[in-house]
Specification:
Helix content is 56%, strand content 0%. Helix 1 packs antiparallel against helix 2. The protein is mostly helical.
């Protein structure tokens, strides 16, 4: 598929292939490539690879939003505060 094993599309392929199979993963990567190419040709931005750790990188804001939505759905109120380190 690609010669570089440490890229976003490779990680995307492995993620989809584990759940859906190799052929569906290949089609999913092709669709993603077509959309990226269309976007680049239309808007002319520089391509920036998100990296292989894109799916495993922690995103605290997204996690807080997800937890808040879940708590609200259960009828609870959630408040997030930073933890101060004490030495």
């Amino acid at each position: 598929m690609t010669r570089n094993k440490d890229c976003y599309l490779c990680a995307y392929y492995r993620r989809i292939a584990a759940r859906r199979g190799r052929q569906r993963a290949l089609i999913a990567v092709m669709r993603k490539l077509v959309r990226a190419i269309w976007h680049i040709l239309r808007n002319k931005p520089r391509y920036q690879d998100l990296g292989p750790d894109c799916f495993t990188r922690p995103e605290p804001e997204r996690a807080m939003h997800r937890m808040t939505k879940e708590a609200n759905r259960l009828g609870l109120t959630v408040r997030f505060e930073r933890i101060t380190a004490t030495a």
